Amino acid sequence: MKGLWAALLGGILATPAALGETACPAAGLKVGYYLLGGAYEEGRGYDVDLVHELARRLGCKIVQEEAYPRIRVLKMVEHGQLNLATSTIPTADRQKYAWIYPYFYSKNMILLSHHVNPRTLDQLLIDPAVKWGVIRGYRHSPEQDAFLEQLAKRGKVVMANDERDLYAMLSQRIITAAFALPFSYDRWLNSPALSGQVEVLDLFPTSERVAGGLVLAHSDFSQQQAEQWQAQLQQMIKDGSLRKILGKYLSPDSVARMQP
């Protein structure tokens, strides 16, 4: 009898994790991607492979996966239309509606048209030839975002829907400058449209790298479930699986620069 009561009490006090709560949301995985270098393009990329591998390891079914503009992906996560996204910088606002677990780090560089003469931040702020392209909904380092706010006050910011739009405007001289990540711009700068037309500058040498993370919506994932995803993500980093996935789409140098 004493053993029976102990068993019953143990069952009552057991946590969801102890009971083996599934890592999968009840409605399945609804994934949103957006165009970003080797991360996603036309259904392929390291973000796709990462999500599929995590889903396989955790036994979760993907019921929806689509590409959208960056800002729309995050709005859909916030409003429960999607429950998983990728390559997202953690911010306080975003962490109000999702858990975000970093899996790579990078630093935005400045792409500057050769037709623009200034080479300092102060000069860029006042030069009339400067039109700065910004992908809608994208966040940079705090210092870079503060610089963009100053540009916006001067009417020098032009919004782009995604990176393809950004690079097209740069090649057509609709914009003359932009922030971009090395693993994103490498292949674009070697394209006929931009080859020899753009210089890469680092005018924020002390700025820290920004994180790109896996996004799990609070609306569909409990904390215990999210922690299971975090644990598997960390395991993929430790066992080299993530590095192998990145290496399918990026150069060894780019992969090395993305490591924690």
UniProtKB/TrEMBL annotation:
A Pfam family the protein falls into: SBP_bac_3
Domain of life: Bacteria
Keywords of this entry: Signal
Solute-binding protein family 3/N-terminal domain boundaries: 43-250
Signal peptide residue numbers: none
Keyword DNA damage in record: no
Signal listed as a keyword: yes
Protein's UniProt name: Substrate-binding periplasmic protein
